[in-house]
Specification:
71 residues
Length: 71
């Protein structure tokens, strides 16, 4: 399961501006990346995050095979 989670997080960091900054500020990658040990230290996405960063939560490129691409 963590292999799939690593792929998902890799996509989010590469394509979703909010997560790129959010996980970097939490030092997830400096602490060894996506592991069972680091999972408990991940920051929670809050309602305030959703309100203040709505546009930054949209992927600039969807994951392969996940919905149509819009121009």
């Amino acid at each position: 399961q963590f292999r799939q989670l690593r792929e998902l997080v890799g996509h989010a960091v590469a394509n979703v501006p909010f997560y790129r900054g959010h996980l970097k500020r939490a030092s997830i990658f400096a602490l060894g990346g996506v592991t069972p040990a680091s999972f408990g230290r991940w920051p929670i996405l809050t309602r305030a995050d959703l309100r203040s960063a709505a546009d930054a939560l949209i992927a600039v490129r969807p994951a392969p095979g996940h919905g149509p691409e819009y121009a």
